[in-house]
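To close the section, here is one more complete example, presented without commentary so you can practise reading it yourself. The ligand is adenosine-5'-triphosphate.
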Amino acid sequence: MSNRLSFESLSITYGHGASLFTAVENVDLTLEAGEVLGLVGESGSGKSTIARAAVGLAEPSAGRIMLGETEISHARGDQLRERRRVQMIFQDPQSCFNPRRTIGQSIDEALISAHRREGTSAPQARARRDEIANLLRAVALPPETAQRMPAQLSGGQRQRVAVARAISAKPAVILADEITSALDVSVQGSVLNLLKELQRELGFSMLFISHNLAVVRLVCDRVAVMRSGSLVEVGDTLDVMHQPQHEYTKELIAAVPSL
Ligand SMILES: Nc1ncnc2c1ncn2[C@@H]1O[C@H](COP(=O)(O)OP(=O)(O)OP(=O)(O)O)[C@@H](O)[C@H]1O
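Output:
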């Protein structure tokens, strides 16, 4: 089982006929096993669309997405199971939880479907409760959080739960889409540190989408720069930050004087 995710000649369009719009055009990008790859670029450049395509929320019009040797674009059957090894965490954690289910129930659902995917029977309720408590501890939340409703948590706590739920699926890849931008600055750092620690410990690969170049510099091994649906530059984070090759990357970096 591979943690390598590659987008091959990927194009994605929205709409039809006269309103056809190409959001992603002929993108070749590989997230190597175990690396954190930043994806940056102006608003509307197609970053989220690429990530959404990897989890089946956007349909490629051309090209394909591979997890290791398995194609996960247009996934069916076994491929669909494989695609669930790619987990996405969104900007707004509120919208990803059923408001009428406790945090424990939400994580439990993810655990059960992970077992279904692996073809193993889920452990008994009691063992799953222990696993939920361990997952909550892993994201530095008290196990009692399981009894609470999503609305009773702060944004930072909800985002930690979203991380716990994502790792409960034993992911090969995590797609993190602006996961700290809705959070108060004071808690952004702790959520990022947590994710980075878990990434080192569990070895998943991560696509880290962000507008914040300072954060990208701290978190990412490599960075890819998008503009108007196309990839303009990919390289080691420090190389791209210190010696950007493309004019557009130079402009992006110049706009953040602290870099
Ligand atoms: N469901 C949709 N239907 C039509 N157009 C869409 C849809 N989703 C996104 N788009 C358009 O596709 C383009 C790329 O959007 P996308 O969300 O991928 O950009 P982004 O780089 O992630 O932007 P941001 O940084 O603002 O999140 C935008 O022009 C957007 O308006």
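Once you have examined the tokens, check your reading against these statements. DSSP finds nine helices and ten strands in the chain. The radius of gyration is 18 Å.
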